Amino acid sequence: MTCVIPVENINYWRHPSLAGIELSQAKFTHFSFDKHVHLDYHLGVVTQGAQQFVNKGCSYQLGQQSLSTLNPDETHDGQSCYAEGYCVNVMSIPVAYMNEISQELGIKEHFFSAPMVEDARLYHYFTQLHEQLIQGQFSELASESHLLYFLHLLLQRHPAQAIKLSPQQGLSPLQLNVIKQRIHDEPWQNTQLATLATEVNLSKFQFLRQFKQATGMTPHAYLKRVRLELAKKSLSRGVLVADVAQQLGFFDQSHLNKAFKHAFLLSPVQFQRRML
């Protein structure tokens, strides 16, 4: 009998002394992540197998001894390199938390210049830290102390580098930021494509093509992902699922359930129970 479930196991945690930080652990076989973005920094390691993903048009293979370093709002996907699948541990770090650490090192904002680094020392430290956090082996003081040490080590060993911008085609960075900010500020709005296009003085067709060229996602897919990322944050605070659906512009609770499970492999209720 053929198994139709694309994932063997996935779990989410929130450490009580690390506000806003999300931990997850999963094993994937056939499941592939569509192109998507996150609102936070996502750091992760593969403990078995290997994951391949595309970021900014380049293909990467995340294996053992490597650490993924994905910036907020960077489009990427993900799937297994091999038929037997892979196991992955991920930590989501809020932007404000990372900025606070960066500023202590004299950096205004830190953006990783590559979506992964080859660093055996950081790989092993992260793997042990992640496991100890989800097992509750640290006191509150020890938890944040170890996390801060790891992040300081990461930023010092892999400092931000100047990114060379290619000749601008399509939407300018300013225009793109205007559109993204509108979506982030009013995710509940069922904004029309024509409205967004008018913001940057383009036709609907021009805007759709240029937004996808710049982000790798259609405006609708981007809006949907932002809503789902915000839904996770609301659910982690204990907001009722029905209220989350209404506040973020989903048609109804069933619509949120379907989209959430497709993206995160758990229903909103299951995710909330694990986080709380």
UniProtKB/TrEMBL annotation:
Organism superkingdom: Bacteria
InterPro entries to which the protein is assigned, alphabetical: AraC-bd, AraC_XylS_family_regulators, Homeodomain-like_sf, HTH-like, HTH_AraC
Bilayer-spanning residue ranges: none
Alphabetic keyword roster: DNA-binding, Transcription, Transcription regulation
HTH araC/xylS-type domain location: 177-274
Gene3D superfamilies per record: Homeodomain-like
Protein name per Swiss-Prot or TrEMBL: AraC family transcriptional regulator
Species this chain originates from: Shewanella glacialipiscicola
